[in-house]
Amino acid sequence: MTLPIRPKNQQLLPLSVPSLIPAGPVPRRKFLAGLIAGAGSIALSACGGGGSSDSPAAVANDESVAKRAGSSGFTVTAPAANASVSGTITVSGTAGTTWHNVAVYDHATVAKIGADTTPSSGKFSIQVDTTKLTVGSHQIDVVAFSVAAGQAGGTKTTQTITIKVTRATSGSTSGALFYGMNGHLAWPDGIYHTMSAAAQLALLKDLGVTNYRVDVADGGMAQTVANALTGAFAGSGVAIMPCINAASTAYDQNGSESAAYTLGYNLGASIAKPLKGLVKYIECGNELDSDGLVTNGDGSNTNNYSPAIWPAFRGVIRGMIDGVKAIDPTIQCGVNVGIPLAYRALQMLWSGITPDGSVNGVSGAAPVRWDYTTFHWYQSSGDITCGWRNNACVNVLQILKDSFNLPIWLTEWGWEGSQVTPTQQASYVTQALTEYRSLKDQYNIQSVQMYCLIDPDFGLIQADGVTKNPSYSAFKKFVAANPV
Hints:
Elements: E1 44-46, H1 63-70, E2 75-78, E3 83-85, E4 88-94, E5 101-106, E6 112-117, E7 123-129, E8 136-145, E9 155-165, H2 173-177, E10 179-183, H3 191-194, H4 197-207, E11 211-216, H5 219-230, E12 239-244, H6 257-275, E13 281-284, H7 310-327, E14 332-335, H8 343-351, E15 372-378, E16 387-389, E17 392-394, H9 396-404, E18 408-414, H10 422-443, E19 445-450, H11 470-481
Parallel strand pairs: 3-9, 10-11, 10-19, 11-12, 12-13, 13-14, 14-15, 15-18, 18-19
Antiparallel strand pairs: 1-9, 2-4, 4-7, 5-6, 5-8, 8-9, 16-17
């Protein structure tokens, strides 16, 4: 088949960020491009540094001690006072230089519900599973200790936050993640930079989106995402899935596998560090097949792939996965391709096959393993259950299911740019969501993330961040009428 010409979703990132300047031009589709008010109390006492038996209740109420605590730099920034929360939430804030261990306790029972955590660069982030609490209003004590966990002596300070525990209605992990969206939260300029994380969150929640895919290309961009997760997004019910955009780094697809692996490993590790404990999913790479890896054909055969570029392609993906897992082995990693029928690239990575120009390639390479399979499918490619190959219908979802037996995420889908009228865009959104929701359980589709929130050609909202296209209403109405 003749593949439709479509722009790739990668963009040269701004020159104002030197670490993001790639070695050469990167094509685009534009992706990858004090106390809480009225809620707290502060107190200090001589105590040990936490541990499973430590009680936060036995604290002094001396006024001078309390004043010292207030000037210590210990502040809880999330969740907000009286926030409605469900599932696992993030309790975060600043610890200054005085406090060396922070933990979270149920105020009523004095049970520890958030593990001892050593602040990093003066900040802390603790996961709390609210499903272990009863529904309703609760007070949680966020306690900072001046000594490490388990050590004797020292002092502590407490901030008490009121939260309202609810129960999610989705009933399943895939349901909670299903309706997704793409955006560029971490970009250092443009509308996504000038629009606050809170404002982006408000749009996502209005749409009914629960899963936000954002591109990152270094630790600084990852920190921007982490700040959003510990700030506006904390307890919001909207998850963020970072996508590592290796193409916006010094990645050399003509280099060696070992060099690409090292770059990928360092990139994955640097991005995972600020996100540890904050995200459950990271996509390792974005359409790395789309820039010359397929030299002929449609990508469905082994001999469609360049033997010269393949080693770096495999190396950087392996490296990103290993780098992420080295920092946080609980993070699940996904891998994607961008060419519509390039599922063969994923099969070769999984099976340890290296293309050499022959029909079958060469076996024996180390198999690459990921946790969920991601794929991109745009309107121009037709129906994903009937991709056209050799004058025959090919069910790409069935191939992905049979090849890997992993959850499937469509991390990009949408119409093809400005040539599609606003009315056609809205119609396509309804059509695509109807199909994907109907196929969700059959193929274990966990998330479908539309491209994208704000964009002059592909967005539900125009580049000004204000003007909503008819497709915005179509998306919102469908999600509201079709909960998962």
